Amino acid sequence: MLAAVWFLPPYSSKGVTRDFLIRTNRNAVFRVNTNELKRFEIDLSREAQKKIGTINNALLVRKLNMLLVAQGREELGFTEFEIPEGAWLHRVARYIDQTNLLEIFERPAKPEPPLTTQSHSCSKIYYGRVNASNYLFRTPQVRANKKLWENFKTISDTYRTLLSYKINIDVLQREMEETRNKIILYESNLSEQVTKCAFTYTALENPNIRPEVILGGAENFTGEMRELLNANIKL
Question: What is the pLDDT of residue 42?
Answer without folding.
Answer: 92
